[in-house]
């Protein structure tokens, strides 16, 4: 059920109890690398992940956007879809969607209670109890089998080989751009991270690979050869052939695996989203049968009117999403240096602000100096704060790091996100007044709230509580 739909009091209360029970488990960022627990759970559930074909996605940045785009294209083709993404912006329910709609409160509670006895059985039989993410993964697999869906689009939580979702065997494996993130768990080199993420490429599958650093591409191709997977690479077998700015997004031409598509309006900003869209289109074509063993044995291009309609419906909440006007306020989930670089490029390309005030709250385990380096050229003033996560960096420490990059005169500090946003609005008003006094064109300043999916979700709840997630 979308967040803006009222939930009866008894269901709302039980939903909160269920959420607290799940949250009390080991958090998703605390990895215990083993598939034994999730295999034990799915076995007790009858291996629901084998009841439907899977398109499996990994990568460092762009996973959720590409997963949402892939699901939209599949649904436009008349297929019943399941979509599992993480982390969530506003509620756990949004992680599990059927036909593009997040689970209702009633259904979320129902599924949790249905699999509850099996959760306790696994907890009792394993050295380590099931985690937060393992429970939600099991719930998603069960929901999709129950629906039943024609195809499930499954995004990994972290990595690939040891990710809980990897008990499913994707007929198509999509790898979005890889860079260094979660180094504590995945390794501190692109090669090590790519080797782990390559684990979702299964024997006989089709691997759709976004443009990658050479070291990552080498590891992914080695895995594909080892398991006999067919490879489709962005920039070689498919890719964006044209891209121009349009009101509210961009207009794309894409050469894909089955044909070329022109005049595709994508209501999202940035070259990175164009690349994500090309990967999504290639994944759907691969699923439709662009390579031997495809799911439906097709070899003709997809209907261009259908593709155009699907592109027009694509959304990616919390990714350079405009949530307010006057001044324009944008929330963005960039949480690592590569993601911030892509967001800054898209921001400067798509918007002509007279200045940008950024509000930043970031997890303490990230490469914060590198994130700040990417953000600094596009930002006039910076307000640092914290988000609702216990992992959020202390604002005083973040301010110290920020001052080393921005200089002390451009950095402000607020203890809470709502106070930081209020401060940013004041700073934006000051920039507007200064621009007007100088006789500048009335483009106006903008506000960017960024640093984490949690930051984006918190800001969305404050500024756009009725915004749709599906």
How would you describe what is shown here?
This protein has two domains: 9-313, Mur-like, catalytic domain (UDP-N-acetylmuramoyl-L-alanine:D-glutamate ligase); 321-463, Protein-Tyrosine Phosphatase, Chain A. It has 15 helices and 17 strands. It has helices at residues 9-23, 36-44, 63-76, 105-125, 132-146, 183-186, 190-197, 214-227, 271-290, 304-313, 337-350, 368-375, 395-406, 417-437, 453-463, and strands at residues 54-58, 81-84, 96-98, 101-102, 151-155, 172-175, 206-209, 230-233, 239-246, 249-255, 260-266, 321-324, 328-331, 356-360, 381-384, 411-413, 446-450. The chain has an eight-stranded mixed sheet with strand order 4-3-2-5-1-6-7-8, with helices on both faces. A six-stranded mixed sheet has the order 12-13-17-14-15-16, sandwiched between helices. Helix 12 (368-375) links the parallel strand 14 and strand 15 (381-384). The longest helix is centred in the first third of the chain and has 21 residues, at 105-125.
Topology:
Layout: H1 9-23, H2 36-44, E1 54-58, H3 63-76, E2 81-84, E3 96-98, E4 101-102, H4 105-125, H5 132-146, E5 151-155, E6 172-175, H6 183-186, H7 190-197, E7 206-209, H8 214-227, E8 230-233, E9 239-246, E10 249-255, E11 260-266, H9 271-290, H10 304-313, E12 321-324, E13 328-331, H11 337-350, E14 356-360, H12 368-375, E15 381-384, H13 395-406, E16 411-413, H14 417-437, E17 446-450, H15 453-463
Parallel strand pairs: 1-5, 1-6, 2-5, 6-7, 7-8, 13-17, 14-15, 14-17, 15-16
Antiparallel strand pairs: 2-3, 3-4, 9-10, 10-11, 12-13
Helix pairs in contact: 1-4, 2-4, 2-5, 3-9, 3-10, 4-5, 7-8, 11-12, 12-13
